[in-house]
Design goal:
globular; alpha+beta; Glutaredoxin
Protein backbone atom coordinates (compact mmCIF):
# COMPACT_ATOMS: atom_id res chain seq x y z
CA UNK A 1 0.00 0.00 0.00
CA UNK A 2 2.85 2.41 0.65
CA UNK A 3 3.62 2.47 -3.08
CA UNK A 4 0.03 3.29 -3.96
CA UNK A 5 -0.16 5.97 -1.26
CA UNK A 6 2.97 7.74 -2.50
CA UNK A 7 1.90 7.76 -6.17
CA UNK A 8 -0.66 10.55 -6.07
CA UNK A 9 0.72 13.87 -7.31
CA UNK A 10 0.07 15.39 -10.81
CA UNK A 11 -2.70 16.99 -12.99
CA UNK A 12 -6.41 16.29 -13.72
CA UNK A 13 -9.91 17.55 -14.14
CA UNK A 14 -12.77 18.06 -16.51
CA UNK A 15 -13.32 21.33 -18.34
CA UNK A 16 -14.92 23.51 -15.73
CA UNK A 17 -17.95 25.75 -15.83
CA UNK A 18 -16.58 27.70 -12.87
CA UNK A 19 -13.60 27.61 -10.55
CA UNK A 20 -14.05 26.18 -7.07
CA UNK A 21 -13.76 28.45 -4.04
CA UNK A 22 -10.45 26.91 -2.98
CA UNK A 23 -8.50 26.13 -6.15
CA UNK A 24 -7.75 22.45 -6.67
CA UNK A 25 -5.27 21.56 -9.37
CA UNK A 26 -6.80 18.13 -10.00
CA UNK A 27 -9.65 15.94 -8.98
CA UNK A 28 -9.10 14.33 -5.56
CA UNK A 29 -9.98 10.72 -4.86
CA UNK A 30 -10.53 9.99 -1.16
CA UNK A 31 -10.02 6.40 -0.02
CA UNK A 32 -10.07 4.71 3.39
CA UNK A 33 -6.75 3.33 4.60
CA UNK A 34 -6.84 -0.49 4.81
CA UNK A 35 -6.20 -2.49 7.98
CA UNK A 36 -8.69 -0.46 10.03
CA UNK A 37 -10.48 -1.63 13.16
CA UNK A 38 -14.19 -1.15 13.77
CA UNK A 39 -15.81 -1.71 17.14
CA UNK A 40 -12.78 -3.64 18.39
CA UNK A 41 -12.92 -6.04 15.43
CA UNK A 42 -10.81 -6.29 12.30
CA UNK A 43 -8.60 -5.59 10.62
CA UNK A 44 -10.82 -4.61 7.69
CA UNK A 45 -10.52 -2.95 4.29
CA UNK A 46 -13.10 -1.07 2.24
CA UNK A 47 -13.92 -3.20 -0.85
CA UNK A 48 -15.08 -0.15 -2.81
CA UNK A 49 -11.83 1.69 -2.08
CA UNK A 50 -9.93 -1.44 -3.11
CA UNK A 51 -11.87 -1.36 -6.40
CA UNK A 52 -10.54 2.18 -6.97
CA UNK A 53 -6.97 1.05 -6.22
CA UNK A 54 -7.47 -1.69 -8.82
CA UNK A 55 -8.69 0.86 -11.36
CA UNK A 56 -5.55 2.93 -10.75
CA UNK A 57 -3.51 -0.24 -11.44
CA UNK A 58 -5.44 -0.95 -14.66
CA UNK A 59 -4.96 2.64 -15.85
CA UNK A 60 -1.71 3.95 -14.35
CA UNK A 61 -2.03 7.19 -16.35
CA UNK A 62 -4.78 8.16 -13.91
CA UNK A 63 -2.17 8.52 -11.19
CA UNK A 64 -0.84 11.50 -13.12
CA UNK A 65 -4.30 13.05 -13.39
CA UNK A 66 -6.00 12.34 -10.09
CA UNK A 67 -4.69 13.06 -6.61
CA UNK A 68 -5.28 10.24 -4.13
CA UNK A 69 -5.85 11.13 -0.48
CA UNK A 70 -6.08 8.46 2.22
CA UNK A 71 -8.34 8.99 5.23
CA UNK A 72 -8.95 7.00 8.38
CA UNK A 73 -12.05 4.87 8.77
CA UNK A 74 -13.09 6.68 11.96
CA UNK A 75 -15.47 9.59 11.62
CA UNK A 76 -15.51 12.47 11.45
CA UNK A 77 -13.18 12.53 8.46
CA UNK A 78 -12.02 16.09 8.99
CA UNK A 79 -10.86 16.91 5.45
CA UNK A 80 -14.06 15.58 3.88
CA UNK A 81 -16.23 17.39 6.42
CA UNK A 82 -14.41 20.64 5.61
CA UNK A 83 -14.85 20.11 1.86
CA UNK A 84 -18.31 18.54 1.61
CA UNK A 85 -19.99 18.76 5.00
CA UNK A 86 -20.61 16.19 7.70
CA UNK A 87 -23.31 14.39 5.71
CA UNK A 88 -20.93 13.68 2.78
CA UNK A 89 -17.95 11.83 4.25
CA UNK A 90 -18.49 8.40 2.66
CA UNK A 91 -15.67 6.82 0.70
CA UNK A 92 -14.71 6.40 -2.01
CA UNK A 93 -15.52 9.91 -3.14
CA UNK A 94 -14.03 11.97 -5.96
CA UNK A 95 -14.02 15.72 -5.34
CA UNK A 96 -13.88 17.49 -8.68
CA UNK A 97 -11.46 20.30 -9.41
CA UNK A 98 -14.06 21.87 -11.73
CA UNK A 99 -17.71 21.33 -12.57
CA UNK A 100 -18.18 18.74 -15.30
CA UNK A 101 -19.78 19.73 -18.59
CA UNK A 102 -22.22 17.34 -20.21
CA UNK A 103 -21.97 14.46 -17.74
CA UNK A 104 -23.37 11.11 -18.85
CA UNK A 105 -27.14 11.19 -18.18
CA UNK A 106 -27.06 8.39 -15.60
CA UNK A 107 -24.14 9.84 -13.61
CA UNK A 108 -25.10 11.61 -10.39
CA UNK A 109 -22.76 14.55 -9.78
CA UNK A 110 -23.58 16.23 -6.49
CA UNK A 111 -22.72 19.60 -5.00
CA UNK A 112 -22.03 20.50 -1.38
CA UNK A 113 -20.45 23.63 0.02
CA UNK A 114 -19.70 24.86 -3.52
CA UNK A 115 -17.83 21.70 -4.55
CA UNK A 116 -18.88 19.08 -7.08
CA UNK A 117 -18.29 15.42 -6.25
CA UNK A 118 -19.06 11.86 -7.31
CA UNK A 119 -19.63 9.06 -4.77
CA UNK A 120 -19.25 5.31 -5.14
CA UNK A 121 -16.78 3.12 -6.99
CA UNK A 122 -18.84 2.49 -10.14
CA UNK A 123 -19.96 6.10 -10.40
CA UNK A 124 -16.38 7.35 -10.00
CA UNK A 125 -15.16 4.86 -12.62
CA UNK A 126 -17.90 6.07 -14.99
CA UNK A 127 -16.85 9.68 -14.44
CA UNK A 128 -13.17 8.86 -15.00
CA UNK A 129 -14.05 6.99 -18.21
CA UNK A 130 -16.04 9.98 -19.44
CA UNK A 131 -13.36 12.54 -18.62
CA UNK A 132 -10.13 10.59 -19.23
CA UNK A 133 -11.16 8.12 -21.93
CA UNK A 134 -10.47 4.91 -20.00
CA UNK A 135 -12.71 1.84 -20.18
CA UNK A 136 -16.17 2.05 -18.63
CA UNK A 137 -17.44 -0.35 -15.96
CA UNK A 138 -19.54 -3.16 -17.39
Amino acid sequence: MAGVESEHRAVAGASGIFQMSEAMQRDRLYLIRPQFMDGGEGPFFCPYCAQMVGLLEFYPELRQRVEVRWVDFARPRRELVELLGEENQSCPVLVLSDAIRNPPPHLQVRNAKGRWFVEGANEIATYLAHVHGIGRPH
